[in-house]
Amino acid sequence: MRAVIETVRIPRIHVEPPLAPGVEIVLPQQAAAHVARVLRLRTGDPLILFDGDGHDYASELAGVSPRSVHVRVLSAHRAAGESPLRITLAQALARGEKMDWIIQKATELGAAAIVPLVTERSEVKLEGARADKRASHWRGVAIGACEQSGRARVPGILAPQGLAAWLESLDRRSASTRLALFPGGESSPRALTAVESEILLAVGPEGGFGDGDIAALRAAGFSGLALGPRVLRTETAGIAAMAALQALYGDL
Fold first, then answer.
1. Angle CA(115)–CA(118)–CA(123) in degrees, nearest 5?
2. CA distances (Å), 240 to each of 58, 82, 133, 138, 153, in order?
3. CB of 50 within 8 A of CB of 56?
4. Where along the chain do the CATH 3.40.1280.10 domains lie?
5. How far apart are the first and last CA of the chain?
6. How many other β-carbons are positioned within 10 Å of the β-carbon of residue 131?
7. CA neighbours within 13 Å on the CB side: how many for 176?
């Protein structure tokens, strides 16, 4: 009978304080509850911490009690979960949990940053405290995706903003490939003739980009990208485009 070896995956936890070998930290309340009550880890069990600097920190539980969980950092090594493509996904706001799904999957696919956009045909609009609350929630979604996927850098989640404001903020001199999902776009991912390591990818809302949006994107140097003969939903289109770009020019 062939022996079956089961590989036990070491849990990965994101923490905010800067980490370094030899330090001991107390886990935040939510992470501590997950470690102690959900995972049921005990003193001496291994753990991987990361703080977003691109390193994984091999650690062990130094003490577990109902009130606190102490972790000792043992060593650091550069994580291998980052893509050579720095893709910024500029995604028009989607309804309900669709935006959470987009951010989760974009993070798993290696997005360097995610920009929630308000466009001509956007039906979802966020302002003030509500926008700040959603941005904080989306960062939590991205952190969870990093913990699961093995990434050690959390993509930046910008505050929701208008398309014009985002385009105005872009560095006109930067060498980046600028793509937007348009109906009848002139290029497919496979047909792109030159792809820079930095990619800006813009995706419209359920109704697509309006004429004014398309004119503004083209004026900012964006070319149209097509994903075949089928019409994809907004929560599918950007993720499909990212997967194709990663497969052709990245690390998939």
1. 130
2. 34, 19, 28, 20, 22
3. yes
4. 86-249
5. 35
6. 17
7. 21
For residue 6, pLDDT beyond 70:
no
Report residue 241 as tokens: 């485009």
pLDDT category at 75 given cuts 50, 70, 90 is very high
Q: CATH says 86-249 is which class?
A: alpha beta
Average pLDDT over residues 34-53: 91
What CATH number does domain 12-78 carry, 2.40.240.20, 1.10.3210.10, 3.40.50.2020, 2.40.50.140? 2.40.240.20
199 Cα distance to chain centroid: 14
pTM of the model: 0.89
Helix and strand counts by DSSP (H, E) for the chain: 6, 12
Per-residue confidence (pLDDT) for residue 171, from 0 to 100? 82
What stretch of H or E contains 77? Answer: strand 69-78
Buried b vs exposed e over 169-186: b needs ≥16 C-beta within 10 Å?
ebeeeeebbbbbbbeeee
